[in-house]
Amino acid sequence: MLIRKEYKCKKYHLLMVQKYSKISPTAVFCARMRAKQDILFAKEIVEMIDTKYSKLIEDLPDYGNTLNSESDFIPFIEGRYYSLNNVLGGINNAFIVELASGLSPRSLVFLDKEDIIYVETDLRKLIKIKEQILKDIIKKKNLKSQNLFFMSINPLKKEDMDKIGEIYLEKGKNKKLIIIHEGFLMYLNKEEKKVFRNNIKYIFNKYARNGLWLTSDFSRIKRHPNEPKGKENIRDKISKFTKRDFDYFESKEETKKFLRDAGFKQKIISNENIISLLIKKKSLQFNKTAILKSAKEYRIWKIEL
Asked: Fewer CB within 10 Å: C terminus or N terminus of the chain?
């Protein structure tokens, strides 16, 4: 009986990994988008993917002309990255856990802050490759790495939340626990979102009642079905490849209720300084209207119990 139960658990875990591993190639897509925008360490990551790890990591089969497009999606990718970094940069003595971190270079930016511990997490295959890529860059750039850790985590599994809690108690108990993610929530359906939300509540209740949840993922709401799509509608290609529809909340009010139902308080943080930066930086590549169009979609939500 026990053997059968263990077998069922292992089979369920395997199915879960297979189900969500199809999302992982989107990490390469976002990495290429960040590299196009000269985000620090982004080009190095893409170079490593293409030269050393191309046979180990799956890429999207068709980008079309997305990487060279002038749609509002490009400043959106960059804007959400800098918006989250901007909020994190104002917090000291923190224990940052990035869920589904993909191939983001964010942790490398915080290596010089000695009071910050950073934990990168993703599914097993991707996080192992990510660890090797970042370690290669750290060695090449002679960066500090004693406060950077890597964990294989499925954020829909409560037992994996306990793994995060345990490393927090071991290495950062007196620090502010901060859970972050970027470009992840829309791949989860409504029920999966509830599991994810409840798991974050679980880790805060059990390990850090004053924990903080930061993300821009709640800022993008469902678009009207009649709203015209851009020439390079990469989202359709991603959905077809991953076999997962993008799932957004219908409105800001629905999003707030979703969080309130679990006892969370929320505050939306202004990103006007980031918008000004992008307008100045992109003035020759994008018009102001294109940047402002996506600006509200990458404001950071500050969420806590």
From this structure: N
Query: At 189, which amino acid appears?
Result: N
Strands 176-181 and 94-98: parallel
Task: Quote the distance between the C-alpha of residue 188 and its chain's center.
Answer: 13
Query: Which two three-digit tokens encode residue 172?
Result: 């950062």
Mean pLDDT score, 118-145: 95
Least confident of 33-47, 131-145, 251-265: 33-47
CA proximity to 134, closest of 124, 125, 123, 145:
145
pLDDT over 90 at 229, yes or no: no
**109-114-116-119 Cα dihedral, nearest 10 degrees:** 70
What is the set of domains in the chain, with CATH numbers?
A: 2-221+233-304 (3.40.50.150)
Question: What is the C-alpha to C-alpha distance for residues 294 and 179, in angstroms, rounded to an integer?
Answer: 24
CB of 201 within 8 A of CB of 264?
yes
DSSP character at residue 67? G
Instruction: Round to whole Å and give the CA distance between 150 and 132.
Output: 10
Q: Are 101 and 179 in contact (CB under 8 A)?
A: no
Question: CA angle, 218 as apex, 71 and 64 as ends, to 5°?
Answer: 25
Return left, alpha or beta for 249; rule: phi > 0 is left, psi -120 to 50 is alpha, else beta. Answer: beta
In this prediction the pTM is: 0.88
Tell me which amino acid residue 176 is.
K
Supply the pLDDT for residue 224.
62
116: helix, strand or coil? coil
Which stretches of 140-239 are assigned E, i.e. beta strand? 148-152, 176-181, 212-215
- Interatomic CA distance for residues 158 and 116, integer angstroms: 25
